[in-house]
């Protein structure tokens, strides 16, 4: 994917909302494009976490191992969604696995690039951190909603 294509794709992602063209170009220097084939693993639970992935096309499943050693599907993600956000904040292993359900085009931003942008361009950093906070809040709300289906009323 060319630099111009990456920047055009970034424009369409909520995470990068609020960045102007020049700021997107700065972030785009740290973004890579990937194609994952059907069934290909993007990352596995327990792997070192070092990148956030933004889905451009296709579908990814997020799964994790239950206490009973069974694979549990947490979510199916499509265009506009992201996965692995936590990994650019903490230094802990991946909390879930992600696998391509269909051929999927994604963009990735690794932790080193994210930190470099935040350190060297504080205004962009604040916008990115707000975007990250929005995504994490959205995931917490979705998790709470899913969990409430399994809890008894008080």
Biggest sheet strand order reads 1-8-3-6
Counted beta strands: 8
CATH class wording: Mainly Beta
How many structural domains? 1
Rg from Cα: 16 Å
Q: Biggest sheet, in brief?
A: 4 strands, antiparallel
Q: Mean pLDDT score, rounded? A: 90
CATH H-level superfamily: Jelly Rolls
Strand content: 25-35%
How far do the termini sit from each other? 52 Å
Task: Tell me what the CATH architecture is.
Answer: Sandwich
Helices and strands in order, then pairings?
Elements: H1 3-11, H2 21-28, E1 31-36, E2 41-43, E3 51-57, E4 60-65, E5 71-77, E6 82-83, E7 97-100, E8 104-110, H3 111-120, H4 122-148
Antiparallel strand pairs: 1-8, 2-7, 3-6, 3-8, 4-5, 4-7
Q: Which features would summarize this protein structure in a list?
A:
single chain, 154 residues, alpha+beta, Jelly Rolls, 4-stranded antiparallel sheet, 4 helices, 35% helix, 27% strand
Task: Explain what this protein looks like in three dimensions.
The strands form two sheets. This protein has a four-stranded antiparallel beta sheet with strand order 1-8-3-6. Strands 2-7-4-5 form a four-stranded antiparallel beta sheet, with no helix packed on it. Helix content is 35%, strand content 27%. The protein has a single domain, classed as Jelly Rolls (Sandwich), CATH 2.60.120. It has helices at 3-11, 21-28, 111-120, 122-148; strands at residues 31-36, 41-43, 51-57, 60-65, 71-77, 82-83, 97-100, 104-110. 28% of the residues are buried. A hairpin with a 5-residue loop joins strand 4 and strand 5. The protein is globular. It has four helices and eight strands; from the N terminus they run ααββββββββαα. It is an alpha+beta fold.
């Amino acid at each position: 994917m060319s630099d111009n294509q990456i920047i055009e794709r970034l424009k369409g992602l909520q995470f990068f909302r609020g960045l102007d063209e020049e700021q997107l170009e700065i972030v785009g220097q740290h973004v890579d494009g990937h194609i994952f084939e059907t069934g290909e693993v993007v990352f596995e639970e327990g792997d070192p976490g070092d990148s956030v992935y933004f889905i451009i096309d296709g579908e990814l499943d997020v799964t994790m191992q239950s206490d009973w050693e069974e694979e549990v599907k947490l979510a199916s993600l499509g265009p506009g969604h992201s996965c692995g956000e936590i990994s650019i904040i903490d230094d802990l292993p991946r909390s879930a696995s992600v696998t391509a359900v269909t051929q999927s085009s994604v963009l990735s931003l690794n932790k080193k690039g994210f930190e470099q942008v935040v350190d060297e361009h504080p205004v962009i950093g604040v916008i990115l951190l707000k975007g990250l906070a929005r995504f994490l809040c959205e995931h917490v709300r979705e998790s709470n909603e899913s969990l409430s289906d399994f809890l008894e009323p008080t």
